[in-house]
């Protein structure tokens, strides 16, 4: 336990220089995102990919550029699937989950195309399960809004558009272990947004979540 804690502190300390030079600027409207359709007021759909992943002190992550997928977290008898989380595929060819920005009704709502109810795909709002123990990107339960950001590194605008919340775009990612997804019965990775008081676990990698092609 002590070893694990010290290891986490070491990882966090090692990441500081990168964090300090990075500033983020929110993308205020769906219309500023890729594949925006002004008639539908929707941008996307796109997958979101693991970007700049760092595994411990090395930069090698097996899941760099792997895309979003999904898992349902509960089944209520006949009512079917009512909530779940956005995940990362464990293999490039596994079933991917698309997201979009819906600008109708004056709000910029991020939605995901996920199995709902009987299991048919439907667009549902997603957001951050805002607790230091989770930080997961979920639907069908209480959440804080997510939005997109542009990065500047040492004052210079960087490429890419990144998913985050409350000015934070850094995520921790860990494996589902033996758990498989209800969507494709394959293992997956779980991204969780860094929120205040969250502790990075020793087996977690750090990454950003970038709109594919942005
Ligand atoms: C990080 O490294 C560990 C140990 O080599 C490995 O088991 C794990 O799959 C790696 N994680 C990622 C995201 O590549």
UniProtKB/TrEMBL annotation:
Task: Name the domain of life this protein comes from.
Answer: Eukaryota
- Name recorded for this polypeptide: Uncharacterized protein
Keyword annotations: Signal
Q: Could you say which residues form the signal peptide?
A: 1-21
């Amino acid at each position: 336990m002590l070893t694990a804690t010290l290891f986490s502190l070491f990882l966090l300390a090692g990441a500081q220089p990168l964090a300090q030079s990075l500033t983020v600027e929110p993308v205020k409207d769906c219309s500023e995102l890729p594949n925006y359709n002004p008639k539908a007021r929707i941008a996307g759909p796109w997958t979101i990919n693991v970007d700049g992943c760092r595994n411990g002190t090395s930069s090698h992550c097996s899941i760099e550029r792997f895309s979003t997928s999904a898992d349902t977290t509960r089944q209520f008898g006949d009512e079917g699937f009512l909530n779940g989380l956005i995940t990362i595929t464990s293999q490039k060819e596994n079933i991917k989950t698309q997201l979009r920005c819906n600008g109708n009704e004056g709000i910029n709502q991020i939605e995901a195309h996920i199995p709902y109810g009987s299991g048919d795909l439907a667009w549902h709002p997603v957001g951050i399960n805002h607790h230091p123990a989770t930080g997961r990107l979920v639907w069908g339960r209480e959440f804080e809004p997510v939005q997109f950001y542009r990065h500047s590194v040492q004052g210079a605008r960087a490429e890419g558009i990144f998913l985050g919340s409350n000015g934070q775009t850094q995520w921790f990612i860990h494996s589902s272990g033996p758990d498989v997804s209800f969507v494709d019965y394959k293992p997956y990775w779980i991204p969780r947004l860094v929120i205040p008081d969250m502790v990075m676990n020793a087996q977690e990698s750090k990454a950003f979540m970038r709109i594919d092609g942005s």
